[in-house]
Write a structure and sequence with these properties.
The complex is a heterodimer of chains A (547) and B (94). Chain A has two domains: 322 residues, no CATH class; 143 residues, no CATH class. Chain A is 57% helix and 10% strand. Chain A has 17 helices and eight strands. In chain A, helix 1 packs across helix 12, helix 14 packs antiparallel against helix 15 and helix 15 runs antiparallel to helix 16. Chain B is mainly alpha-helical and 94 residues long. Chain B has five helices and no strands. Classes of the chains: A alpha+beta (547), B mainly alpha (94).
């Protein structure tokens, strides 16, 4: 039972599915694996932020400190006040030096005599870097380059999803719920690929379409303003929110008053931070200041990764924008918040976070099985005891690159997380170190896979993944005996990062065993056989050795 | 029916039809969405941006359905022209 589609169209869409899927598959593995880890961005950020030295402004009255900072720097660009007592941030009242979350901040504190001090601290960049790998594929250079490449990858993937569904439609009923495990490996992989793909199709559609938006939103807005919105009030309306009334710096509402104001607006909303953003100074010494209030509310669509946002006039507390205040989102704003929230998985607490985490890992598995299919369907089969047919160069390279990129990303991310133990607070540029560790490890794994081939590198690289991942909890354990082993000091949430890493290491070790057994068992003409060699002379030698 | 043989340039032409007139069609349809009903409703222009990728990908997926690359270009250009005319009409008289 299925839809009738002309066979030449099916063939055409199958080709489209194969090529878009294979090209996009590499980037998608990284996007999905990195995205799965990014579901726990905040816990990872807290884990990697040591409490030594102690937060500079602890115990200080926020309102008083804020007033002192504003008094000392009345022409501030931005002052940020953190109110989430659980989050490990460099300080309670800080002056950001850039818009980037990894940029250093000036942390305000009062010394023993009550004099204001500003000291520079850099937030721990680990979680931000993992998120950047997710968004850029880990491509070095200006993040915008990687983001645009991943946007193209996402667009190709959207085509792969559409064409994959079209190819499957005519035989949907008979193929979908069949998992034919047996001698026909290709059939089995195809069944697994179809089942995983269809079961997670809604998730993948949401992810891929929102990812294209995230990559190209500036470009699309600019193009729309130049075309469909030209000379229309729509273009201006989007960029001109209400402006606050200019006030003198000493008349600004303090953090306490803003929190009170927010509580009156929305009792369910918990404020986590307030950004005071100053506008241009007027002739009379006043200026318009916007309070950008971030926070969360349970079981609501959140416009940001883990937060909703409201804009207040920091002088009189009037609401100048509540379109993205959870629970207050109406009409089109609610639709937009839903688009964002469905990508971030921030609308249902830890249950949804874990579901997204698992769906992300399953997504990575779909790309892995997809590339396996491509390779196995191009096998030249050796018959009647003839010497093993050499596989095409493209099949060998694709298989090796699949293993190299996927496991390079896995080992690289584990290594960059483990490195937090040793480099935090001990090197100058933490971000550069975290990036360097990832890139070097990724390059080594990729080079190893391309040199050794898929089958003969997969098991070893999986063992390396397991060992490197195990360093994350092992270092914490070692630090129980020898505290200098780690610069970190655990988190209030307990050992969640260590537990998950330990479990992942066990799973990786098990997969390494599966991989090694497969390499030893499959026909020698498969790219997944450890007996296969990369070139003809070596292949001949392998036979002499009985490989 | 004879087995279809698409050459490399056919694939290129299909792909360009998906990328170019497919995108123009998506942009124009987003414009129809914006100017049908209240165009300056709060944050509606953000939805108008958000719907471009889904519309574009739908058009791109459809491009390969046409009999030939030439047909894909022709129909998608025609659809883009009609949708653009609709935006113009909505903005002028809507």
């Amino acid at each position: 039972m299925g839809l009738k589609i002309r066979t030449d169209l099916i063939r055409r869409y199958k080709t489209l599915h194969t090529w878009t899927g294979v090209i996009a598959g590499f980037g998608l593995f990284i996007a999905f694996y990195g995205g799965a880890l990014s579901m726990f961005k905040q816990p990872i950020a807290d884990w990697a932020s040591p409490t030594r030295p102690a937060p500079l402004a602890d115990g200080v009255d926020r309102d008083a400190l804020f007033a002192r900072v504003v008094e000392a720097t009345p022409d501030f660009q931005a002052v940020r006040v953190h109110l989430d007592s659980d989050a490990r941030v460099p300080g309670t009242v800080v002056l950001p030096t850039g818009r980037d979350d990894t940029a250093p901040v000036q942390v305000a504190s009062l010394d023993a005599e009550g004099a204001l001090q500003l000291r520079e601290r850099t937030p721990t960049p680990l979680a931000e870097w993992i998120d950047l790998v997710h968004r850029t594929g880990g491509i070095p250079g200006d993040p915008e380059i990687g983001i645009h490449v991943m946007g193209i990858v996402s667009a190709l993937y959207a085509l792969a999803l559409v064409s994959g569904v079209i190819v499957l439609l005519p035989t949907l009923a008979q193929d979908l719920l069949a998992l034919r495990i047996g001698r026909n490996r290709k059939r089995m992989w195809l069944d697994a690929h179809n089942l995983l793909g269809v079961a997670s199709l809604p998730f993948h559609l949401v992810m891929v379409l929102s990812a294209v938006v995230f990559a190209f939103h500036h470009d699309i807005y600019d193009l729309q303003d130049a075309t469909i919105h030209r000379d229309s009030p729509v273009a201006e309306a989007a960029y001109a929110p209400l402006t606050p009334q200019p006030v003198r710096a000493d008349a600004l509402l303090g953090p306490g008053a803003i929190v009170e104001r927010m509580h009156a607006l929305s009792p369910e909303f918990t404020v986590t931070s307030i950004d005071y953003r100053g506008g241009k100074s007027e002739a009379d010494g006043t200026r318009a200041v916007t309070a950008v209030v971030q926070g969360h509310a349970p079981n609501r669509f959140l416009r940001g990764g883990t937060f909703g946002v409201a804009f207040l006039d920091a002088g009189n507390g009037q609401v100048i924008g509540d379109g993205f205040l959870p629970g207050h989102q109406r009409g089109w704003s609610h639709a937009v918040a839903a688009f964002f929230a469905l990508h971030f998985g921030n609308f249902g607490g830890p249950g949804i976070q874990w579901a997204y985490f698992l769906l992300g890992l399953v997504g990575a598995a779909v790309f892995y099985t997809g590339n396996l299919l491509w390779v196995e369907s191009r096998r030249k089969i050796s018959r009647n005891g003839a010497p093993p047919a050499l596989q095409t160069r493209s099949a060998r390279n694709l298989a090796a690159a699949t293993v190299g990129v996927s496991l390079g990303c896995v080992i690289g991310l584990s290594a960059t997380i483990a490195a937090a133990h040793w480099i935090t607070g001990r090197v100058d540029s933490l971000l550069a170190w975290h990036q360097g560790v990832y890139w070097v490890v990724f390059a080594l794994a990729f080079g190893w896979a391309m040199w050794r081939g898929a089958a003969r590198s997969a098991a070893g690289l999986l063992r390396a993944s397991a060992l490197v991942t195990a360093l994350i909890p092992a270092t914490t354990l070692l630090a129980q005996l020898w505290p200098a082993a780690t610069a970190l000091d655990g988190v209030p949430r307990g050992y969640a990062v260590e537990l998950v890493a330990g479990l992942a290491a066990v799973v990786m070790w098990w997969l390494a065993g599966v991989s090694a057994r497969r390499a030893a068992r499959v026909p020698v003409d498969s790219v997944w056989s450890a007996g296969m060699r990369a070139s003809a002379p070596v292949a001949a030698q392998a036979q002499v050795e009985g490989g | 029916m004879a087995r279809e043989q698409l050459r490399g340039r056919d694939w290129l032409s299909f792909s360009l039809a998906a990328a170019l007139p497919g995108f123009v069609l998506a942009m124009a349809l987003a414009g129809v969405f914006q100017y049908l009903g209240d165009p300056i409703a709060q944050d509606k222009s953000q939805v108008t941006m958000w719907i471009v990728p889904p519309l574009w990908m739908a058009a791109a997926g459809t491009a390969f359905w046409f009999r030939s690359p030439r047909a894909a270009w022709g129909w998608l250009l025609l659809a883009a022209a009609l949708a653009s005319a609709a935006v113009f009409a909505l903005r002028t008289w809507g």
